[in-house]
């Protein structure tokens, strides 16, 4: 083998080695390889842009939300946000994300029906009080996991309401308008097209009355639901935020990462967290 050949092979080996290392920490663009200092500079720029975006979104939120948000480590916040967004992207491509914002200002698409509704039937994990209940597949599976944990602690959950179609919610809302008048009905019943129940990921447990909070079932859910991805939607003292009075029985499946995210950074208020996710996603599109 000639010296020239040896040098050529050695040079090729060096190039291959460099590309392998760079492939782990960098990338090439237009055949130009970025050096480590440039990589770090670009990472810093991305972090700065993300931090500005976070603070910008929070600045547009309501005063109570701004006062509730606590971010001590922006890098950790972004890392946790990425986990929540990844979970939110796992939903079927032809359905709405699990963290879709729906409230009095944000309506669901006309005629929306979840693509994978699973009927709730009699089973060994939880009780049902009607035969026409159903949930999105993700929520139905998570309900079994939640209920199995409750059973281990000696509590059996009762599901009283779940998915509601637009037409069903229309009937419910109009009933409460007749009974209480529109102003009072708007405090406790969603207008059709604005109900979390239409998402197929919300459950009303137990008696659907205020005293549910004091029952073993209600107490267990308050203490443990978030560990299994279920979040209280309408907490006490936040009617000016959610639009609804306290509903101690109404929990929405949002996933474990989102529950941890809302508790760590958003004062454990679902509305604040989902409003942020909605604004972040909108800014990305």
Comma- or semicolon-separated keywords:
two-stranded antiparallel ribbon, five-stranded mixed β-sheet, single chain, alpha+beta, disordered N terminus, 285 residues, 9 strands
Walk me through what this model shows:
This protein has helices spanning about 5-25, 35-60, 65-70, 75-90, 135-150, 165-180, 180-190, 215-225, 240, 255-265, 270-285, and strands at about 30, 30-35, 115-120, 125-130, 135, 160, 200-205, 230, 250-255. Strands 4-6-7-9-8 form a five-stranded mixed β-sheet. With about 280 residues, the protein is an alpha+beta fold. α4 packs antiparallel against α10 (about 255-265) and α6 crosses α7 (about 180-190). β1 and β2 form a beta hairpin. Mean pLDDT is about 90; it is low at about 1-30. It has eleven helices and nine strands. About 50% of the residues lie in helices and about 10% in strands. About 25% of the residues are buried.
How far from one another are the termini? 58 Å
- Calculate the mean pLDDT score and round it: 89
The amount of beta strand, in percent, is 5-15%
Structural class: alpha+beta
Extract low-pLDDT stretches.
2-31
> What's the overall geometry?
globular
* Strand line-up of the largest beta sheet: 4-6-7-9-8
Helix content: 40-55%
Cα-atom radius of gyration: 25 Å
Order of helices and strands: HEEHHHEEEHEHHEHEHEHH
Number of helical runs? 11
Q: What does the main sheet amount to?
A: 5 strands, mixed
State the total count of DSSP E strands. 9
